[in-house]
Design brief:
The protein is α+β, with helices and mostly antiparallel strands. It has 9 helices and 18 strands.
């Protein structure tokens, strides 16, 4: 789900607070995944990224992003409008922009498929497909449609379902998932030349979303998105598709956040309008010099962001979370840049939580 529907952007450590797990793993993960792609001949496109400003407040945000990137060791630089035009002629900004040359694009499905081949070929592990966990079975077992699975040590990296499994172990009880739907549109094939590098806005620092942006995929298509629309299911990819009996409970969580969290309320109201193409176009148009409504077409690309919320503070959790007991480790809030960070994150989790594994 999350990995297969990922945008494919290899982030380069620009956004994350110093000392956070995201800051510690993003850039290292970028380099490890680059090496993995090179080793296995997997697609990797060196697009780079520019972050543009549309208001004086966003210009100040660029300075903060530059400081965060430099603290993480990421190579970035502020460029003026002339330099920006050389990097991305169609990008529009107010005086300055931030250039991240290490941002790249990969094919997430190709990487996941190669990882699966690695696991199968190792002789040390096997993958059970279509085997969702139905519950615990004693101290050292899980029930699945394919029978009981025993474990000496369990690592829960179940993405949009990770909090439910953690709760079954009495862990992660301070957190609960609120899913957000990321929908995309794309430039028509004959208009894809309008954008050659990734173009991002300055994000709202109160929220873990990066805003609607332009991204060139490894296959050459240019996507516009994603949205961050509150969803009513962990797999609610369509309007009704993916809704289940948990929908009323998720709706209640959204309602509580809407009342208690002003940033969520503003985001929900702004994002819901992006179900309409004109609203998404309006956001995208601010980032570029040339774009017409007819340049954009629908896209089937959609994903779910498994966003954690703190039950007590009603705040969206900004960083990765890991909780454990003697026999299990639970990886929660594996949201962007989790795909980029994944290989470095795996090493960090083993070093810090599974030293005897």
């Amino acid at each position: 789900h999350a990995s297969g529907r990922n945008s494919g952007v290899l982030h380069a450590g620009v956004y994350y607070a110093a000392g956070s797990a995201k800051a510690r793993t993003c850039l290292a993960g970028n380099r490890l995944m680059r090496a993995y792609c090179a080793e296995h001949g997997l697609p990797l496109v060196e697009t780079g990224k520019v972050i543009v400003a549309t208001t004086p407040a966003e210009l100040r945000g660029l300075i903060e992003l530059k400081a965060r990137a430099e603290a993480a060791g990421a190579p970035v630089r502020l460029v003026d409008e002339k330099e920006l035009a050389e990097i991305e002629p169609n990008a529009a900004t107010l005086g300055k922009a931030l250039h991240s040359p290490l941002t790249a694009v990969v094919d997430p499905r190709a990487i996941v498929q190669q990882l699966a081949r690695d696991v199968a070929g190792s002789g040390r592990a096997r993958i059970l497909y279509n085997a969702p966990v139905q519950g615990r079975d004693g101290r050292d077992g899980l029930l699945t449609p394919q029978g009981r699975v025993e474990f000496r040590r369990l690592v829960n990296a179940a993405g949009a379902h990770a909090d439910k499994l953690a709760h079954a172990f009495g862990l992660g009880l301070d957190y609960v998932l609120v899913p957000f739907k990321g929908c995309y549109r794309r430039l028509r094939e004959d208009r894809a030349h309008l954008v050659r590098v990734a173009i991002y806005p300055v994000p709202d620092p109160r929220l873990p979303f990066l805003g609607v942006h332009f991204t060139r995929s490894a296959a050459g298509s240019v996507y516009i998105g994603p949205t961050a629309i509150p969803a009513l299911g962990r797999e609610n990819y369509g309007i009704l598709a993916g809704l289940d009996r948990e929908a009323p409970e998720i709706l209640l969580r959204d309602a509580v956040l809407f009342v208690r969290n002003p940033a969520f309320r503003a985001t929900a109201l702004a994002e819901l309008r992006k179900y309409f193409p004109a609203a998404l176009y309006s956001d995208a148009r601010r980032l570029v010099k040339h774009l017409e409504p007819g340049d954009i077409e629908p896209s089937p690309k959609v994903g779910i962001r498994p966003q954690l919320v703190n039950r007590t503070t009603h705040q969206l959790v900004m960083d990765f979370v890991a909780e454990r007991d003697e026999r299990s480790l639970h990886v929660l809030n594996a949201i962007s840049p989790a795909f980029t960070a994944s290989m470095a994150m795996a090493k960090m989790l083993c070093d810090e939580h599974l030293p005897a594994a």
